[in-house]
Every structure is written in C-alpha cells, then in structure tokens.
Write a structure and sequence with these properties.
Order of helices and strands: HHEEEEEEEEHH
CATH architecture: Sandwich
Number of helices: 4
Largest sheet: 4 strands, antiparallel
CATH superfamily: Jelly Rolls
Number of strands: 8
Distance between the termini: 42 Å
Helix content: 25-40%
Shape: globular
CATH class: Mainly Beta
Amino acid sequence: MFNRNAYVSNLSSIPLFSACTKRELLDLARRAETVDVTAGTVIVKEGDRALEFFVIVSGKVKVARNGRTVATLGDGAHFGELGLLADHTRDATVTAVEDTSLVVLQRTAFIASLAEIDTMSRKLLQGLATRLIELDTKSIG
C-alpha cells in the first residue's frame, strides 16, 4: 500500500495534472497500484506500446534512448504520462538501477476515470497545453 496523499501531491506538481482538483487526483490514486522491481529490471522498453504512467516512490532508474543513457531519475520522479493520452510507442528504455518501488497508473484505469469525471478532460488539456508551452519556450530560448 502506498501513501495516496503523497501520490496526489506528486501528481499535482506534474504539468499534465496541475489543473485537476484534489478529488480528481484522489480518484486516479485509487486506481493506481504499486509495483516493486529489482535492480536491473527493464520497466519499459523503447519501441514497446505505451500503456501506463509511473511515479518512483523509492529507488533509482536510468532512462536510455538508442542505447545511450539520457537521464537518471529517483524518488518522486515520473515517466510515461503521455502513454495515458495517446496510443504510441515508448521513446526510451527505463531500467531500475537499484531496487525500486513504483506507483503505476494503467491507461485503462485512467480512461475509466475520465469517463466518470467529465470535468477532468478539460483540465488535462490545460495541463497538456502548459507542458507544450514550457517545451516551446525551452526550444526558443
């Protein structure tokens, strides 16, 4: 069992979810599950279908594209949120560097939440727009 309030707090800091209410985020938290993996486990593989979103509760992972490490993520970091929104393939491989505990939200659970809470879709669009603006600003600046 994971700390749902900590998970909600983490979600609220992610641009995609930043416009959602606490109630909406608690609904997502109720639908999420914890997964523990050992060091060396490939969590997602570049080119595989993206079907879930991950938050690292504890541990460390490395992110690699085309076999080259591009990032190391630890406690509180997240990856895969766009897999909730679109049917696409992973653009990186994520491997546990040490034993790692994750909170995982499956796309099917996410879609069910959207179907039940009609205001959430608009708020997620706001969050997605915020993320796109941030990326656009970085590419210009």
